[in-house]
Amino acid sequence: MNENFNFELKRIDDVSIFKLNEKRFDAQIAGLVKGELTILLHTDEINKLIFDLSEVEYCDSSGLSAILLAYRIIQSNEGNIRIAAPTKNVKSLIEISQLDRILPIFENVEKAIEDLKSE
């Protein structure tokens, strides 16, 4: 099992951007992502989060559950989350699972930032 994963966390004003620099967002790393996000969201007072999925070519239900965990934590802090730049396959999975109803999808990070700042 993979013991780490590659990601970047950036802040632009009060918006945090979590970019997953992995081709696969599946059971191999989903648990690690959940752990990292749980720590970040509980300790860094993040209440506006963008998931940048531009590097992810494959995602399964484990990856989606990590995103949903972040959504639940942020919702409990009255915050918001957005999905940015998903690849075609990942976007299809999000839409098929109807998560786009609660997780708005934007074609790039800049548009997701604009949307979060308008709230």
Structural account:
There is one protein chain. By secondary structure, the chain is of the alpha/beta class. The protein has one domain (7-117): 2-Layer Sandwich (Transcription Regulator spoIIAA). The chain has four helices and seven strands. It has helices at 27-43, 61-76, 88-96, 109-117, and strands spanning 7-12, 15-20, 24-25, 48-52, 58-59, 80-84, 105-106. The strands form two sheets. The protein has a five-stranded mixed sheet with strand order 1-2-4-6-7, with helices on both faces. Strands 3-5 form a two-stranded parallel ribbon. Strand 1 (7-12) and strand 2 (15-20) form a beta hairpin. Helix 1 packs parallel to helix 2 (61-76). The radius of gyration is 13 Å and the shape is globular. The protein starts with 6 loop residues before the first strand and ends with a helix. The relative contact order is 0.17. The mean pLDDT is 94.
Please give the CATH architecture.
2-Layer Sandwich
Could you say which overall geometry the principal axes of the C-alpha atoms support?
Answer: globular
CATH evolutionary superfamily: STAS domain
The major beta sheet can be summarized as: 5 strands, mixed
**What is the straight-line distance between the termini?**
40 Å
CATH class: Alpha Beta
CATH topology: Transcription Regulator spoIIAA
Query: Spatial order of the strands in the main sheet?
Result: 1-2-4-6-7
What is the number of strand segments? 7
Mean pLDDT: 94
Q: What is the assembly state of the chains in this entry?
A: single chain
Percentage of residues in helical conformation: 40-55%
Q: Tell me what portion of residues adopts beta-strand conformation.
A: 15-25%
Strand/helix succession = EEEHEEHEHEH
| Low-pLDDT segments, ≥5 res | none
Q: Given the structure, what is the number of helices?
A: 4
Q: Can you tell me the number of structural domains? A: 1
Category from helices, strands and their pairing? alpha/beta
Protein name: Anti-sigma f factor antagonist (Spoiiaa-2)
GO molecular function: anti-sigma factor antagonist activity
Domain STAS: 5-116
Organism: hydrocarbon metagenome
